[in-house]
Amino acid sequence: MTGPAPRIREGESFADLHLHTRYSDGTYSPKELVGSAVANRLAAISLTDHDTVEGCEETAALCAAAGIEFITGTELTAEHGGTELHILGYHIDTSSPALLSAMGRFQTARQERIKEMVSRLNEMDIPLTTDAVMSLANCRSPGRPHVGLALVRAGICASVDEAFDRFLKKHRPAWVPKMLLSAVDAISLIHAAGGVAVIAHPGLNRIDSSISSLVEAGLDGIECLHSKHTPVMTDRYGALARRLGLLITGGSDCHGFIKGTPLMGTIKLPYHYVTSLGEKAASLAQKSSPLTEIQH
Ligand code: AMP
Ligand code: ZN
Ligand code: FE
Ligand code: FE
Questions:
Q1: pTM, whole model, 2 decimals?
Q2: 191 and 94, same structural domain?
Q3: Nearest ligand to the C-alpha atom of residue 141
Q4: Over the stretch 185-241, which tens digit does the pLDDT of each residue have?
Q5: Do 211 and 95 fall within a single domain?
Q6: How far apart are CA 70 and CA 66, in angstroms?
Q7: Do 274 and 195 have their domain in common?
Q8: 161 lines ligand 1 (CB under 6 A)
């Protein structure tokens, strides 16, 4: 069962399962996001804002009106063996108390981190204020791209990319480490919320050696298709997912206009992977149902 991931079945529709809105560091509102999904003729989308599920309800309603299937989602920031990685949660119950309380803690830590980044910039005589960043972010889950955008708006950097290169990238002067959940706990949290746990863009995080231990911790899938994966990475992770019996997912990781041209439409996940994802969510729900335990 190894070999490259099958691409497209005849007559098949497509999905994008990795998207951000203004509820984290994207520039699209849910309405603009769904408008773009319609323009790209997508059959299904998931909203995977960083450490929040706030935009899901609004996006679900807009998708229902537009005839697009909506899958609840989030992208949790985590670490494994000292390396940052991102875990996508799909089909999660967005009212799960455990999930919401963990997210509340991450959001507070993100807000504190913004203050710390601004104070480091101030120490370099860069006159940015926390209020300027927070009012621009206008969300509970602010991140480095908001600081980057504020630096652009203040005329200090020409682009968000330049802001990352000069100040915000790891080990640059305004970089502040993030509160990171262990990847094992992130997977448990997603499962506790009835969801399916998928490792995001593994090609960008150098975490290949961790995948087998994440599978032991319950990882359900690999995001093989991603806008920053090369075709070689896509095929390699597709083969790995098949070998390990994991789901294959994919998405553009579109953040709207924050980093230039929106990426929606650059990744087209064949719909049968969406079907498999839904089947997995249903089987996990059945396994955790007390009724099933009694029947056994
Ligand atoms: P944070 O969660 O605050 O650490 O910010 C992560 C976000 O910053 C992600 O959406 C990344 O796509 C974006 N990002 C990370 N590195 C860079 C970079 N070098 N240039 C532009 N954006 C970046
Ligand atoms: Zn982001
Ligand atoms: Fe990510
Ligand atoms: Fe993302």
A1: 0.93
A2: yes
A3: 1
A4: 999 999 999 999 999 999 999 899 999 999 999 999 999 999 999 999 999 999 999
A5: yes
A6: 10
A7: yes
A8: yes
